[in-house]
C-alpha cells in the first residue's frame, strides 16, 4: 500500500491522506452490530476531480474503494471488509446552489439533510426525505433512503433529478438534466441511486425540494393492538386523506419512550401522524381523520398544532433507537427492515411480533406504515452466540415472510452485507443482470466489493 498512499498524497495533499489508527477505526464500523474491519487508508477529497484521480489510482493498483459519508448506515455498507481506501466525503460539503423557481438544489455529497434545510428555509423551501439520522445526501442517495415523510413526498430516488458520478475508471458523468421529465435514453440516475457505492461515487446531486407547508399539524392516537393500528392507516389512506407522515410505534417502544424522555404516553400500539397543507385543507383532513379514528376504536387522540409540541412528539419517535441503546447498557442494537404491500402489512407485523416473542428476544416493532415499511429493533449481547443466532433466525423469518407475500427484504436500509443472502430469492434471474451491469462498469471489482453481491 505504500506506493498507493504516495500516489494518493500526490493526487490530493498529505494532510488529507491518513493511516491514523483512530481515524481508521472510525471508518471501519457503522451504526449497529456489523463486524468491524478497518481500511488501510482514509482519504478526504474536496473536489470531483480529486475523487476521479483517487479512483484512477485505485483502479490502476486494483485496490478497493469504499465511499463513506457519516457512517450512519445499518447493514455494513461502509465497512471495508476487503481493506483498501475509505473515501470520506465529509469535506465535500460546501456547495449548495438553490434554484427556487425550479424547486431544485444542487449540492455536494457531504452536505447533510439538516445543513440543506437550514440553507433552504429563507427561500420558504425544504427537502422532504427524513430518515431520522442526519445523514449525508450522497449517502442517502447511495442507499435510496426514505423515512417518515415518504408516504406523501416519496423516497430518495423520487427526489433525484440528476447526479454527477465518478465511474470506476475515473471518468466523470452526468446522469440527467434539470428538466422535470425526460424520455431520452436509459434512466441512469435510478441505476446509481441505491447502488450503495458499488458502481461509482456520487460527487454532486441535483434534488427536488418543496415549499414549506402553510399549516402543519401532528397527532398521536393509541390502539388496543397492532392490527387495529394498521387497519386504521389503511382506512385513512383509502379515504384519500393527505397524510405527510404516519408512523407506527408498538407498546414496547412507547414504554421505552416514556422511560427515556420523561413522557406519560399510553403504553399501547400508537400512531404518530402529521398533516401538511393550507389551513382549510388541513382542518378538513383533521375532522375526517377524527371520525375515522373513532370508528377504528382509536384511544387518547391528541393533536399538536404549535411547533414546540410537534417537535417534542417527533423527537420522541426519531430518538427511539437511541432510547433503546441508552436503556440497554452493554448491548448492541440490531435494526432490520422489510417492506410489504399495504394489504399484507398487519399480517407481517403480527408475524414479526410472534417470532420475536417465540425467540424470547428483547425488542420493538415500528415503522413507516403508510408505505408498508416496518422495522424490528433488537437489543442483543454481541458476545452472546445464542442471542446472535436468535437474532439471525428472527431476521430470516420476517424476510422470508415478506418475500412470500410480495414484499422485499429491505425497504430503505439497503443490502450492504446483511441482506446479501436474500438477493437470489428476491430477484431470481434478474440478479444476474445486476451482476452483468456491475461487471461492465467495474471489471476490476474495486467499488465497495462484497456489498449487495457476494462475488468479489
TrEMBL record:
<dbReference type="GO" id="GO:0004458">
    <property type="term" value="F:D-lactate dehydrogenase (cytochrome) activity"/>
</dbReference>
<dbReference type="GO" id="GO:0008720">
    <property type="term" value="F:D-lactate dehydrogenase (NAD+) activity"/>
</dbReference>
<dbReference type="InterPro" id="IPR016169">
    <property type="entry name" value="FAD-bd_PCMH_sub2"/>
</dbReference>
<keyword id="KW-0809">Transit peptide</keyword>
<dbReference type="GO" id="GO:1903457">
    <property type="term" value="P:lactate catabolic process"/>
</dbReference>
<dbReference type="InterPro" id="IPR004113">
    <property type="entry name" value="FAD-bd_oxidored_4_C"/>
</dbReference>
<dbReference type="InterPro" id="IPR016171">
    <property type="entry name" value="Vanillyl_alc_oxidase_C-sub2"/>
</dbReference>
<dbReference type="InterPro" id="IPR006094">
    <property type="entry name" value="Oxid_FAD_bind_N"/>
</dbReference>
<dbReference type="GO" id="GO:0071949">
    <property type="term" value="F:FAD binding"/>
</dbReference>
<dbReference type="InterPro" id="IPR036318">
    <property type="entry name" value="FAD-bd_PCMH-like_sf"/>
</dbReference>
<dbReference type="Pfam" id="PF02913">
    <property type="entry name" value="FAD-oxidase_C"/>
</dbReference>
<feature type="domain" description="FAD-binding PCMH-type">
    <location>
        <begin position="35"/>
        <end position="212"/>
    </location>
</feature>
<dbReference type="InterPro" id="IPR016166">
    <property type="entry name" value="FAD-bd_PCMH"/>
</dbReference>
<keyword id="KW-0285">Flavoprotein</keyword>
<comment type="similarity">
    <text>Belongs to the FAD-binding oxidoreductase/transferase type 4 family.</text>
</comment>
<dbReference type="Pfam" id="PF01565">
    <property type="entry name" value="FAD_binding_4"/>
</dbReference>
<keyword id="KW-0560">Oxidoreductase</keyword>
<protein>
    <recommendedName>
        <fullName>D-lactate dehydrogenase (cytochrome)</fullName>
        <ecNumber>1.1.2.4</ecNumber>
    </recommendedName>
</protein>
<keyword id="KW-0274">FAD</keyword>
<dbReference type="InterPro" id="IPR016164">
    <property type="entry name" value="FAD-linked_Oxase-like_C"/>
</dbReference>
Amino acid at each position: 500500500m505504500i506506493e498507493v498512499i504516495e500516489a494518493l498524497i500526490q493526487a490530493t495533499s498529505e494532510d488529507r491522506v491518513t493511516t491514523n489508527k483512530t481515524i481508521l477505526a472510525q471508518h471501519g464500523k457503522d451504526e449497529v452490530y456489523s463486524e468491524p474491519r478497518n481500511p488501510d487508508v482514509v482519504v478526504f477529497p474536496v473536489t470531483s476531480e480529486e475523487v476521479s484521480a483517487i479512483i484512477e489510482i485505485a483502479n490502476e493498483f486494483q485496490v478497493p474503494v469504499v465511499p463513506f459519508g457519516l457512517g450512519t448506515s445499518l447493514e455494513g455498507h461502509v465497512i471495508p471488509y476487503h481493506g483498501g481506501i475509505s473515501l470520506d466525503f465529509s469535506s465535500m460539503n460546501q456547495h449548495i446552489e438553490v434554484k427556487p423557481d425550479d424547486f431544485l438544489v444542487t449540492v455536494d455529497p457531504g452536505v447533510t439533510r439538516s445543513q440543506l434545510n437550514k440553507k433552504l428555509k429563507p427561500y420558504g423551501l425544504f427537502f422532504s426525505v427524513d430518515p431520522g439520522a442526519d445523514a449525508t445526501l450522497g449517502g442517502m442517495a447511495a442507499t435510496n433512503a426514505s423515512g417518515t415523510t415518504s408516504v406523501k413526498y416519496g423516497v430518495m430516488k423520487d427526489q433525484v433529478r440528476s447526479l454527477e458520478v465518478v465511474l470506476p475508471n475515473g471518468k466523470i458523468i452526468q446522469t440527467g438534466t434539470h428538466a422535470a421529465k425526460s424520455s431520452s435514453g436509459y434512466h441512469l440516475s435510478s441505476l446509481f441511486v441505491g447502488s450503495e457505492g458499488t458502481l461509482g461515487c456520487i460527487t454532486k446531486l441535483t434534488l427536488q425540494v418543496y415549499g414549506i407547508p402553510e399549516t402543519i399539524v401532528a397527532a398521536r392516537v393509541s390502539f388496543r393492538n397492532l392490527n387495529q393500528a394498521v387497519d386504521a392507516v389503511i382506512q385513512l389512506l383509502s379515504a384519500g386523506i393527505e397524510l405527510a407522515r404516519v408512523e407506527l410505534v408498538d407498546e414496547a417502544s412507547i414504554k421505552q419512550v416514556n422511560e427515556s424522555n420523561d413522557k406519560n404516553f399510553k403504553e399501547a400500539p400508537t400512531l404518530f401522524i402529521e398533516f401538511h397543507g393550507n389551513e382549510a385543507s388541513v382542518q378538513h383532513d383533521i375532522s375526517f381523520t377524527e371520525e375515522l379514528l373513532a370508528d377504528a376504536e382509536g384511544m387518547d387522540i391528541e393533536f399538536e398544532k404549535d411547533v414546540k409540541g410537534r417537535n417534542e412528539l417527533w423527537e420522541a419517535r426519531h430518538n427511539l433507537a437511541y432510547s433503546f441503546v441508552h436503556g440497554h447498557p452493554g448491548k448492541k442494537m440490531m435494526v432490520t427492515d422489510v417492506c410489504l404491500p399495504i394489504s399484507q402489512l398487519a399480517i407481517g407485523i403480527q408475524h414479526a411480533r410472534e417470532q420475536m416473542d417465540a425467540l424470547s428476544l428483547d425488542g420493538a416493532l415500528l415503522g413507516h406504515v403508510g408505505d408498508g415499511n416496518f422495522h424490528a429493533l433488537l437489543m442483543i449481547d454481541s458476545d452472546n452466540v445464542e442471542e446472535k443466532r436468535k437474532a439471525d433466525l428472527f431476521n430470516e423469518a420476517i424476510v422470508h415472510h415478506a418475500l412470500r407475500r410480495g414484499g422485499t427484504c429491505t425497504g430503505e436500509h439497503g443490502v450492504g452485507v446483511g441482506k446479501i443472502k436474500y438477493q437470489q430469492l428476491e430477484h431470481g434471474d434478474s440478479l444476474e443482470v445486476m451482476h452483468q451491469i456491475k461487471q461492465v462498469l467495474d471489471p476490476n471489482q474495486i467499488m465497495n466489493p462484497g456489498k449487495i453481491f457476494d462475488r468479489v
